[in-house]
Amino acid sequence: MATRLFGTDGIRARAGEWPLTPEFTLRLGRSIGLAARARSNSPMVVIGRDTRRSGSMLESALISGMLAEGVDVVTLEEFTTPGVSFLAAQQNATFGIVVSASHNPYWDNGIKIFEGIGFKASDELERKIEETAQNGMTPEPTGDLPGMVRVNRDLGQAYVRHLIQAFGGEGALKGLRVVLDCANGAASYLAPDVFRRMGAEVIALNVWPNGVNINVQCGTEGDGPQRAGLAVMAAGAHIGFVFDGDADRCKFVDEIGQERDGDYILALLARDLLAEGRLPGNTVVTTQMANIGLDRSLREIGVRLERTQVGDRWVSQRMREGGFLLGGEQSGHIILFENDLTTGDGLFTALRMSQLLLRKQPCRFSELADSVLTKAPQVLVKAAVAAKPPLESLPGVQTQITRTRSVLGDDALINVRYSGTEPVVRVMLQGNGQPVETLHAEAKRLLEAVVTETGN
Which residues are part of the catalytic machinery? Predict the structure, then answer.
């Protein structure tokens, strides 16, 4: 039986270690090539990568494997994940592929696969690729002729033009002063260019990638938003946007330096879309990690909040099933099925929020955010784990969850889960009036129970 390689957001591992060795990545490329040939007589794949040092190595191995199986490849080189998804669909590609580990440190990397229509690969396709790569491949390539590869930097401008046109054309954000933290990642050149062409005054941070500084003290994780907040206040900017390494996530920082995550963005956009009569089913989709305050915020305007398991692919899947327009995660991964988008796009989210701010002036963004959402106390802690046995099989963990429930009450939210992209367990607790200190204490007990039973 093949080892499961794909997690909640593609394959993710330390670059150079299995399965992201050059040798096995070439096999993955061949397997993707075989899957592409099974779908098309003239298969073509669009591929891009973020800025981490190992990206060129892994991209080259994937491309070699696909070329060997007779698949043509168009590479965008360093480009954002949503940009690759969009252009794969626009070019009628068989697949879109991104080599990225998103918000992870530079020594990690990953492989994300999109269907030709722009949505993330199905479980069936991922299982077929990993099965073939591990067990079902002939020693030699089966293609009659190798494919061809070409670099097409101009293709990326089609994505840029699409974004600019979607928000009123060049100059439409004139009068806005904005800070952009690009995490030394894939948005480093793209985001400042788009905002400047839109007429905004841009203060660009962390736009000098060197292969190892991606997500280092910047971006959506850790103290990145707080650092961006200091820059916003120092520059007297109206707003700041913080992207992750591949720019599918975006958080914003208001004019007084406060971090505002995806819950705030969903609350603001839900009201905006509802006022325009463009919120199908009066429903927003999010995950179990969203704050209880978001439920209350949306109930006030007659909007239903539907929760899925953690992972943007599950949010997207439920949105497609229900015909919904808006969804996302607290992490800043916002999905809007408008303007031909099929996945979370941090740059699109930032432009959408900028447009909203200009329409609401002279109201300040801190006032807008505070007016739509009051968060309930929430604690999120994490720890490294050596293994990931099913949590339901760990009696000590289940006992502690029951104890925590008795302390916090039936209305509390308790979420214990392994990361789908890192060797980490996360515990999230939301109470209903309990002090934050109580939440911290209970979260620590749950975390210790998991670490003890996983043998770390």
Answer: 102
Backbone φ and ψ of 29, nearest 5°: -60, -45
- pLDDT tens, 177-186? 999 999 999 9
Residue 296 has a pLDDT of: 94
> For residues 311 and 102, what is the distance between their CA atoms, to the nearest angstrom?
13
CATH code for the part of the protein at 158-256: 3.40.120.10
Give whole-number Cα distances, 94 to 37, 40, 168, 222, 328, in Å.
9, 7, 31, 37, 26
Complete DSSP assignment for 32-57: HHHHHHHH-SS-EEEEEE-S-TTHHH
Neighbours of 270 (CB within 10 A): 23
State residue 32's pLDDT score. 98
Prediction pTM value? 0.91
Domain ranges of the chain: 6-151, 158-256, 260-347+360-372, 378-453
Bridge partners (DSSP) listed for residue 307: 286
Q: Is 455 exposed, middle or buried (0-12, 13-18, 19+ CB in 10 A)?
A: exposed
Query: 239-243 and 177-181 as β-strands: parallel, antiparallel, unpaired?
Result: parallel
Report the C-alpha gap between 249 and 102 in whole angstroms: 9
DSSP E strand stretches across 124-182:
149-151, 177-181
Q: How far apart are CA 391 and CA 277, in angstroms?
A: 42
Give the per-residue pLDDT at 455.
75
CATH topology of domain 260-347+360-372: Alpha-D-Glucose-1,6-Bisphosphate; Chain A, domain 3 (3.40.120)
Counting Cβ atoms within 10 Å, is residue 302 exposed (0-12), middle (13-18) or buried (19+)? exposed
pLDDT on residue 90: 95
Q: CA-CA distance, 364 to 238, in Å (whole number)?
A: 8
* Sequence-separated (6 or more) residues with CB below 8 Å from residue 60: none
Q: Three-class SS of residue 110?
A: strand
d(Cα 48, Cα 31) in Å, to the nearest integer?
18
Beta strands in 184-299 (DSSP E): 201-205, 239-243, 250-253, 259-260, 283-287
Residue corresponding to tokens 């949590």: 391
The list of the chain residues with pLDDT below 50 reads: none
pLDDT tens-digit map of 300-357 = 999 999 999 989 999 999 999 999 999 999 999 999 999 999 999 999 999 999 999 9
Bridge partners of 380, per DSSP, are 428
Q: Please determine, looking at this structure, whether the domain spanning 6-151 carries the CATH number 2.30.30.240.
A: no
Two tokens, residue 222: 């850790």
